[in-house]
């Protein structure tokens, strides 16, 4: 009997949203698609097109396959399905801070779950994805869409997802160099001053309040950070100049996207400033000899979806 095939679409994400280090995230309208067929015989066939097609492993190290295997083991189906045919269509830039690894993890879990009859709900998929990724800030919005607030208690993940009260465009400057999450975490201190912790608690709280109430003034205030961006600035030439340029051109603010090096500007849709903001960000980067390209994205409101 021929094995079934499923196709999944997962949005890219931007983690941290400025002050919400490892806690806040959003899903945006750039997508990776996965086609998965589980086989009863061992063996892997993995093909891919698009971003990172020449750099992603096509063997047992592949994160999509490892995630699918993880779910099959949890369901007690790993002895029944020992191989897979995988095709990936990648549009999320690799190692740039837009959640490419999270899309692969969520895609593998979601597709494998669908193929064995959906024994796990989205909350359980989130727990599995967090166990694999190590933190929920990227995988949560990839699963649920919108903005997400995440908390981990003794390894258990809770996630609150919501949509903001105003429509925004996300203008993302994608530099022409990658930055590994490992390197971006390596520059962070193990302890921070109390004043910086208080600063970020206030800003993260203000950001969520501004988004849920639709308050532009406090959105601007809520995007500032003292815990991770100041330390990572040395890895991204001109980062703060790009932030300033985006604000001057009409953005409510800009942040480092995830671990970077992408920088993401938040632009209220009614201001129609996304084109000017993109040009300003590119010009600011050029002054620091960094070539970049612009992605203008919307908020994804659905998260991972099975394609019919």
TrEMBL record:
Its main location: cytoplasm. Pathway: Amino-acid biosynthesis; L-threonine biosynthesis; L-threonine from L-aspartate: step 4/5. GO terms for biological process: threonine biosynthetic process. It is an enzyme of class 2 (transferase). Residues 62-146 form the GHMP kinase N-terminal domain. It catalyses: L-homoserine + ATP = O-phospho-L-homoserine + ADP + H(+). GO terms for molecular function: ATP binding; homoserine kinase activity. It is found in: Cytoplasm. The keyword Ion transport does not apply. Keywords: Amino-acid biosynthesis, ATP-binding, Cytoplasm, Kinase, Nucleotide-binding, Threonine biosynthesis, Transferase. ATP binds at residues 93-103. GO terms for cellular component: cytoplasm. Pfam families: GHMP_kinases_C, GHMP_kinases_N. Its EC number is 2.7.1.39. Residues 210-279 form the GHMP kinase C-terminal domain. Gene3D superfamilies: 3.30.230.10, GHMP kinase, C-terminal domain. Coiled coil: none annotated. PANTHER family: HOMOSERINE KINASE (PTHR20861:SF1), HOMOSERINE/4-DIPHOSPHOCYTIDYL-2-C-METHYL-D-ERYTHRITOL KINASE (PTHR20861). Belongs to the GHMP kinase family. Homoserine kinase subfamily. Catalyzes the ATP-dependent phosphorylation of L-homoserine to L-homoserine phosphate. This is Homoserine kinase. It comes from Mitsuokella jalaludinii. The lineage of its organism: Bacteria, Bacillati, Bacillota, Negativicutes, Selenomonadales.
């Amino acid at each position: 009997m021929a094995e079934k095939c499923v196709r999944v679409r997962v949005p890219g994400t931007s983690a941290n949203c400025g002050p919400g280090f490892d806690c806040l995230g959003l899903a945006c309208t750039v997508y990776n698609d996965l086609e998965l067929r589980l086989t009863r015989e061992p063996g892997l066939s993995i093909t891919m097109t698009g971003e990172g097609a020449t750099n992603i492993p096509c063997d047992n190290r592949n994160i999509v396959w490892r995630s699918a295997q993880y779910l099959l083991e949890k369901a007690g189906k790993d002895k029944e399905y020992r191989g897979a045919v995988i095709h990936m269509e990648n549009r999320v830039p690799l190692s740039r801070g837009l959640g490419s690894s999270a899309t692969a993890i969520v895609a593998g879990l979601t597709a494998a779950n669908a193929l064995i009859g959906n024994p796990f709900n989205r909350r359980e998929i989130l727990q599995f994805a967090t166990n694999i990724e190590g933190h929920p800030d990227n995988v949560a919005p990839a699963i649920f869409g919108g903005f997400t607030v995440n908390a981990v208690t003794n390894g258990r993940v809770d996630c609150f997802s919501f949509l903001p009260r105003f429509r925004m465009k996300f203008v993302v400057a994608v530099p022409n160099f990658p930055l590994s999450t490992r390197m971006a975490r390596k520059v962070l201190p193990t302890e921070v001053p109390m004043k910086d912790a208080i600063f970020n608690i206030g800003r993260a709280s203000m950001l969520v309040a501004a988004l849920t109430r639709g308050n532009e003034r406090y959105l601007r205030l809520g995007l500032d950070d003292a815990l991770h961006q100041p330390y990572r600035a040395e890895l991204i030439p001109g980062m703060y100049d790009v932030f300033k340029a985006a604000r001057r051109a009409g953005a409510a603010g800009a942040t480092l996207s995830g671990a970077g090096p992408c920088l993401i500007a938040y632009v209220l849709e009614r201001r129609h400033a996304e084109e000017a903001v993109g040009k300003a960000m590119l010009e600011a980067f050029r002054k620091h000899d960094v070539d970049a390209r612009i992605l203008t994205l919307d908020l994804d409101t659905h998260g991972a979806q099975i394609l019919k």
